[in-house]
Amino acid sequence: MKPMFERCAVAALTGILAAAAPAAAQGQQETVTVREALAFLITTQAVDTGDAARDRAAAAATSETLSRALLSALATLPLTSSSAGFTYRFNPTLGTVERASESFGPFFVERAMTAGRGRASFSVNWQYARFTRLSDMALRDGTLVTTANRFTDEDEAFDVETLRLRIRASSLTFSGSYGVTDRLDVSAAVPLVSLSLEGDRTDLYRGTRFQQATASASVTRVADVLLRAKLRVAEGDWGGLAIGGDLRLPTGSEDDLVGAGTTGGRGFAALSLGSELVSGHVTAGVSRGGIAQGIDLGGALAVNPTPTLTLAAEMFVRRLDEVGRVRQATSAHPNIQGVQTLRLVQESGSLTETHAALGFKWNVGGMWLASATVVLPVNHAGLTAPLMPSFSLEYSF
């Protein structure tokens, strides 16, 4: 057992450092980007771990991983399907154009049906997210430990730094689609994202609390624009098959974490099966460029209880390569025997996110469709919100 006076001296020294360091880092008055505010909160540290170089490297890696996690959540926001709710086809027997499907289709999972030659639609979609977790760590309640020192024979750390982050995002996406031919649709989506970040970092030394840093930043601007083309390659009484591609343009701001900074592409295939009353849809895609390369898979079940109402349940999985994760790691203090140090570190690897969605599409009159859905995280990989509500209004002509 370490002598009491020595133990107190060690703890007192770290306490003095904790009290002195934050004086110059209480807050940021100048205008900063979201990335700068996040980096400031992650890298401002007062706990003496005895390895400043390792602390700087770990803090920088953690800040970058958090930024990429936020980018992957925002720059690749799940956009509503480009398929118009109303789809049409030419009936050669009657010589007229008729509805191709009574179903209005799923929300995020693409379906194989196309709108029909000369048919167009325009929609506005609003979505909101309040991010509360980073993997298995809570962000908003101040329990996220970034750095700590603990005597090996004590259960509680005597010097602990915690981080609290409040991250909110809402998006208003304007999208439109047009049937170039009966088999080919083209579409575009322009998301306007409003993102705000507020945070504070606090040191708790032997029951005395010191505020290390506070920072906030917000931005409202156009995120990455999405262009899409979809070609129906097969159709029958069984359903249909389509292939397509996405192009994400780097119109968003990478510094404000609402844009990937580089052009991204995605190829996908969509399969639709089933009757007018119940239909199933599957989409599989491969992405390159943008925030990260990856693959995605989505499935949806749509039910039409009435001609004017479609209910849908969906699940989609996305794996992004080289996004990385953040975890807490413990190591022995290099200078003080009997003290362990905890810090946040980066862990490389892929990230697999799974979400589910439930909602409805309602033909409120004429060619107008109103829809509402809620997206829920199935696993807690990356940056997640407990739920993401979404509302949209679509007009076809």
Radius of gyration: 25 Å
How much β-strand is present in the residues?
Answer: over 45%
Class per helix and strand makeup: mainly beta
> In this structure, how is the largest beta sheet organized?
12 strands, antiparallel, barrel
In DSSP terms (H or I, runs of 4 or more residues), the helix count works out at 3
- The whole-number mean of residue pLDDT values reads 81
Q: Which strand order does the major sheet show?
A: 3-7-8-10-11-12-13-14-15-18-19-21
What is the N-to-C succession of helices and strands?
A: HHHEEEEEEEEEEEEEEEEEEEEE
The overall strand count is 21
User: Which segments are poorly predicted (pLDDT under 50) over 5 or more consecutive residues?
Assistant: 1-29
- Helical proportion, percent range: 10-25%
| Distance separating the two termini | 80 Å
- Categorize the overall geometry: elongated
